[in-house]
Amino acid sequence: MSSFKPKLFTTLKDYTKQQFISDATAGVIVGIVALPLAIAFGIASGVTPEKGIITAIIAGFIISFLGGSRVQIGGPTGAFIIIVYGIIQQYGTTGLAIATVMAGFILIFMGLAKFGSLIKFIPYPVVVGFTSGIALLIFSTQVKEFFGLNIPKVPSEFHEKWIVYFQNFGSINYYVLGIALLALLIMIFWPKVTHRIPGSLIAIIITTVIVQIFHLPVDTIGSRFGEIPSNLPSPSLLEFHLSDIKNLIAPATTIAILAAIESLLSAVVADGMIGGKHRSNMELIAQGAANIASPLFGGIPATGAIARTATNIKNGGRTPVAGMIHSITLLLIMLFFGSYAKLIPMATLAAILVIVSYNMSEWHAFKSLLKSPRSDVIVLLTTFFLTVIFDLTIAIEIGMILAVLLFMKRMAEVSNISIITKELEDEEEKTDPNSIEKRVVPEGVEVFEINGPFFFGAATKFKEQLKIVENPPKILIIRMRNVPAIDATGLQILKELYNDSKKNGTHIILSGVHTQPLYAMTQAGIFDLYGEQNIHGNIDDALDRAREILGLPKLGRPENFVPTVKREMK
User: Fold this and answer.
1) What is the rounded CA–CA span in Å between residue 401 and residue 75?
2) Residue 476 — φ and ψ, nearest 5°?
3) CA angle in degrees (0–180, nearest 5) for 80-275-363
4) Quick check: pTM over 0.70?
5) Measured between alpha carbons, how far is 514 from 484 in angstroms, rounded to an integer?
6) Contact 1/291 with Cβ under 8 angstroms?
């Protein structure tokens, strides 16, 4: 069955030398971007730094090799930091390894049972509640390292952490704070110089050199963890008992669900950016295989990484080969430069994680969701506070129940069987007459497609990645041909996209707008906000509008034009 066929084998049929060059370039760049993140995620999760790199190498390669997405980049992510740290505290590193392998088998089962298509329908307030809560928890774990506070042991509970921080703020190490602030400023302002080289890498190089030259009293990876191995360890089998499985089933399920949500949301965002469609069930199987293999080499849980996936796309990666090269790049860095990683200041890694937590926080989306219907707000705040105050396992259990209830409510409000059936399909349409690949897209124009009535979360993710990855495009066309209905959340995000586009100098055009969204947009004042000339029923008219703005000649509708919306089917 094609839905269980890795994308690698599909893309290799028409593979060219030019595509390999693009994939190789993207893979090397993403590998460099992933290095400081892998180290930071490893340390913040409570394991040694090389385990983060090992995870990116082993799991990243398997996710690309077996995955159902053309461009997904896998590895350790910020979403796992809190759950991994908690499992280590309670069950040790052996318990973490067993739970990760169990999660891998759960993911494979989810894929074989074709749960992948259903997971994409998890309501956005649930996802934002999780990620915002995790972001706040990650930030809370880095306060000691960022300020150099003299605290022998930081409590695990959120409120206890902050009580101890306030009690010990008099013990700030100003050398540590200075290095952390310098790293933070470099990462904030470096993108104005270039997006090709990550600011986190520049921050690491500059701060490491400063600490070494001036012999500053700042903890480094070496002073905290000792030597870092510059080789890949041999795989070893895990020893476990039946009682371990019973004790670890809850954390293993949490890892599996979190990995599924993160990876498939990342794949949906990637689909919108490249105009493709991933195989969600094959992606889950790949994630499962990666999480089984990673602990055998000493690694930690892995999933799809949205920021690294977007970086891959922006640098020309279009097949899984790019993701495999990203892993090989990390392996070569570990073999030849791994010994130098011990010189990296811990304060710099704390600054990297502060940036990660800010990007994860999605405070724009959180703020906009607070203006949504009451049911959305209740779900958002429930999952957020459960994540922060209790733990992620409870939050995910309750969050999934709320997700089901909210999904049923949405189905009662809006029913479009054809669209939902289409979303449950895993394969790309072979004969799609309106595929973006069959259109000429002018330079400076980005086309992003939203699929299904509930995926405005993907639009927000894409908006955030535009800020992080590169300068915004001159024109952004948002395709809505597969969006039969829009609710208050979607309308609010369209408003935010418009306001952000004004600040960034990006012109937004909406394409494939159906009757219900058009009516809802008119009622909410969004139709007047965007202007009639920027809202179209099909991609050809939208591209011609983009050409008009750029001063290029219009191409008109092609001879084999196929209407997208009902009002054009005359």
Assistant:
1) 28
2) -120, 115
3) 40
4) yes
5) 6
6) no
Distance between CA 566 and CA 415 in Å, rounded?
Answer: 17
**pLDDT higher than threshold 60 for residue 415:** no
**Cα–Cα distance measured from residue 505 to residue 508, given in angstroms and rounded to the nearest whole number:** 10
Tell me the C-alpha distance between 420 and 407, whole Å: 12
| Mean pLDDT, the chain, whole residue set | 88
As a whole number of angstroms, the distance between CA 245 and CA 101 comes to: 10
Give the pLDDT mean for 527-556.
94
Q: Are 182 and 146 within 8 A, CB to CB?
A: no
Residue range 486-506, pLDDT digits in tens: 776 678 778 878 888 888 889
261-300 pLDDT tens trace: 899 888 888 887 887 888 999 999 999 999 999 999 999 9
- Answer whether 323's CB lies under 8 Å from 66's CB: no
| CB 360, CB 129: distance < 8 Å | no
Amino acid identity for residue 100 in this structure: T
Residues whose CB is less than 8 angstroms from the CB of residue 381 and which lie 6 or more positions away in sequence, other chains included: 129
CA 224 to the chain's CA centroid: 30
Q: Which of 225-239, 312-326, 355-369, 381-395 holds the top average pLDDT?
A: 312-326
Which segments within 259-312 are labelled E, that is strand? 303-304
Per-position DSSP letters for 464-507, written without gaps between them: HHHHHHSPPPSEEEEEEEE-----HHHHHHHHHHHHHHHHHTPE
Neighbours of 334 (CB within 10 A): 23
Using left for φ > 0, alpha for ψ between -120 and 50, and beta otherwise, residue 452 falls in left
**Cβ contacts of 314 within 8 Å, gap of 6 or more:** 195, 469, 470
